[in-house]
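Human: We require from you a protein record containing the residue sequence and its fold in token form, and nothing else.

Assistant:
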Amino acid sequence: MQPILEAEKVTKVYGFGEASVTAVKEVTLKVYPGEFVALVGPSGSGKTTMLAMLAAMLNPTEGKVTIDGVDLCCLKESQRVKFRRQNIGFTFQSNNLIPYLTVLENVELMLRLNRRMNRIEHERIKQLLIELGLGERLNVLPNQISGGQKQRVAIARSVAHQPRVVLADEPTANLDTQRAQQVVEIFANLIHNQDRCGIMVTHDLRMCLYVDKIFQMEDGKLVRTIDNKAEIEKFVLSH
């Protein structure tokens, strides 16, 4: 099986000479279809910079990032924007829902931007929201739903355009434990069932119980990869 996403000896350096800072150093990783992984590490470990490079929002100083064999560094800026819009989905700590659009309209937005909106897609999105327990909230505004429901809307929006890669940056930071577990479990199920690859940056290691693999970073380096469920549970319990 070929990986959907691959980083090869990726390094990111900010500044020049004695003032330079290496945020990420020679990180190599692969994520396969149907795989949901966590990127963990202390503040300043390089997680955010790494996620930005995986998202085609930042070019590495050295190395390369590929999605389905496409080298993101070789794309022109206009091509990168189009590639991100079509192939990458995002979920953030602050769900970034548009306040004057309904739940349904927020989720359909990426399809409209990609000029793929039609009656079939409309019904597919409605069904997705129903499966996420939001069937009775389709036509309400974001300020009329709970924090957990907003994150479910954000997850639906991130996968609505059927991207190959879904990235989540601290998606549960503003949720209580029960809602956080529900959100991550929903996220994991969508990745597994739709054969996409998902990467979640999180400080809450309890959420790692729902992933298939853990990439642990320290001081800009990938120091450990855990891809065994028993070892993942051991890692979580030990922290």
